[in-house]
Amino acid sequence: MSVVNAESAYLFRHAVLRDAAYQLQLPGDRARLHALAFAVIEELAGDRPPEPKTLRLREAEDVRPHPSDPFALDLADHARLAGAGLGNELGSAQVRKMRTAEKCYLRRAIEFTIRHFQNDETERLWKSYAEHVTGAERGEALRRAGLVAQRTGRSAVAEALLEAALVQIRKAGDRRAEGNALGNLASLYSETGRSGLAERTHLEALAIHREVGDRGLEGIELGNLAMVYADAGRVELAERTHLEAIAIRHEAGDRRSEGIGLGNLALLYGDTQRFELAERCIAQALAIHREIGNRRSEGVALGSLAGLYSDTGRLELAERTFGEALAIIRQVGDRRFEGMTLGNLAVLYADTGRFDLAERGFSQALSIHEEIGNRTYQGGHLADYALFQLVRGQADLARETWREAAEILRQIGDVRALQLITRNMHEECSRAGVPPFDEPAPR
Questions:
Q1: Is residue 96 part of a domain?
Q2: What is the pLDDT of residues 351-388, one digit of tens each?
Q3: CA 92, 93, 96, 98: dihedral to nearest 10 degrees?
Q4: Cβ pair 334, 152 in contact under 8 A
Q5: 211-256 pLDDT, tens digit each
Q6: Cα–Cα distance measured from residue 400 to residue 263, given in angstroms and rounded to the nearest whole number
Q7: How far apart are CA 274 and CA 368, in angstroms?
Q8: Does residue 393 lie within any of the structural domains?
């Protein structure tokens, strides 16, 4: 056991005492202590890292790890407090130096939180960084904050941040960034059930990508548009658009986006019962995600693969793969896909007669869907839950649940999902010997 000498360390038993001792220092003295702390920590952490470039679209990867990164947020705070407190004493050049250091370390702190999947802190720091920059760079910081909020299931916050980002980007006249922000908004509209608005906004974004000649973003936008077509039941158009998008992504050398596109095409093949094609696409997608270290997309692809195993009767393998997917998705903090995976796993539990696990899984999944506004999967999993209730002999309750599910899918215009749940419902009602739920209930 190591012993700390009482003369070389101070321990505050209560945060109030610490804060009181801090406030007793004169402002100038406090600022000088922050400047001293900044200098000492920076020297011990390997001196000043390279200053990140101006934040631009799709350039986060330029910030390489540095030994100071675990201390970057503390360094940014010390630089901020030193610069603010010694504004008159340091002189304008020194104040600018501290502000430059604050911005540098704030950006590095963001990249550190990204690498460690600290989503809430990442969102907070992107918003803070936006206050240090102007124009298109501010818009890009807000856009990234919005994407984190979207990934963690806070759709309303995400939409407000993306709209604020679009305002800044348009003021700066950056058409490439404008198209990208519009595409992000369109994907959010799709996730929250506004399919018509999603399609119009994707098309607006696509026109901008083609105008500025950005083939990479064109490929991404086409892939997202293909998902909207698939949800609307336009399967042939969706498949053609997916294939075109993947070809463009491959041509542009965007491996990350190519892998995501292959995974989305696999979903379409699975939904249309072309299981061999679906499995081949998912295998290609997984190989790419693992090659480039894209953990989030690896988790999503594993969830799709588990669903495919379940659909083709490989239930033990499906359950193991769902577990792998869920572990990764929780690690990266993606609430949307956590809810989707929990609901799909609940279906598997129901199919294998583990009703208590199924009940718990449906409850958790539906709670997440409602919390984050994932209307598509809320409708789909409510329909699955209705069929589970039917199997358990709760026909009247199942009818109410199924009709709630169908109404959600009608409201958001998800034709494909509505057709699927209706077909499944008719089959299960026939097996149970009860009238279909879309017919008037017997009196």
A1: yes
A2: 999 999 999 999 999 999 988 878 888 999 999 999 99
A3: -110
A4: yes
A5: 999 999 999 999 999 999 998 889 999 999 999 999 999 999 999 9
A6: 34
A7: 30
A8: yes
Task: Retrieve residue 360's tokens.
Answer: 């718990």
- Which residues span the domain enclosing 441? 350-443
d(C-alpha 280, C-alpha 283), whole Å: 5
In which band, very low, low, confident or very high, does the pLDDT at 310 lie, cut at 50, 70 and 90? very high
pLDDT of residue 260: 95
Please give the single-letter amino acid code of residue 74: D
Q: What is the largest CA-CA distance in the chain?
A: 86
- State the Cα–Cα distance between residues 103 and 80, nearest whole angstrom: 9
| Whether the Cβ atoms of residue 198 and residue 183 lie closer than 8 Å to each other | no
Neighbours of 343 (CB within 10 A): 24
Q: How many domains does the chain have?
A: 2
- Please check whether residue 236 lies inside any domain of the structure: no
CA-based nearest residue to 349, from 364, 362, 337, 335 = 362
pLDDT digits (tens, 9 = 90+) for 183-221: 999 999 998 888 899 999 999 999 999 999 999 999 999
Instruction: Give Cβ neighbours of residue 186 (< 8 Å, ≥ 6 apart).
Output: 197, 198, 199, 201, 202, 204, 205, 224
Residue 377 within a domain: yes
* pTM for the whole structure: 0.73
d(CA 26, CA 399): 70
**What is the number of other CB atoms lying within 10 angstroms of the CB of residue 120?**
13
Give the chain as a 3 state SS string: CCCCCCCCCCCCCCHHHHHHHHHHCCHHHHHHHHHHHHHHHHHHCCCCCCCCCCCCCCCHHHCCCCCCHHHHHHHHHHHHHHHHHCHHHHCHHHHHHHHHHHHHHHHHHHHHHHHCCCHHHHHHHHHHHHCCCCHHHHHHHHHHHHHHHHHCCCHHHHHHHHHHHHHHHHHHCCHHHHHHHHHHHHHHHHHCCCHHHHHHHHHHHHHHHHHHCCHHHHHHHHHHHHHHHHHCCCHHHHHHHHHHHHHHHHHHCCHHHHHHHHHHHHHHHHHCCCHHHHHHHHHHHHHHHHHHCCHHHHHHHHHHHHHHHHHCCCHHHHHHHHHHHHHHHHHHCCHHHHHHHHHHHHHHHHHCCCHHHHHHHHHHHHHHHHHHCCHHHHHHHHHHHHHHHHHCCCHHHHHHHHHHHHHHHHHHCCHHHHHHHHHHHHHHHHHHCCCCCCCCCCC
Tokens at 252, concatenated? 């542009």
Backbone φ and ψ for 442, nearest 5 degrees, come out as -65, 140
Structural tokens at position 102: 């604050």
Residue tagged 């604050």 (tokens): 102
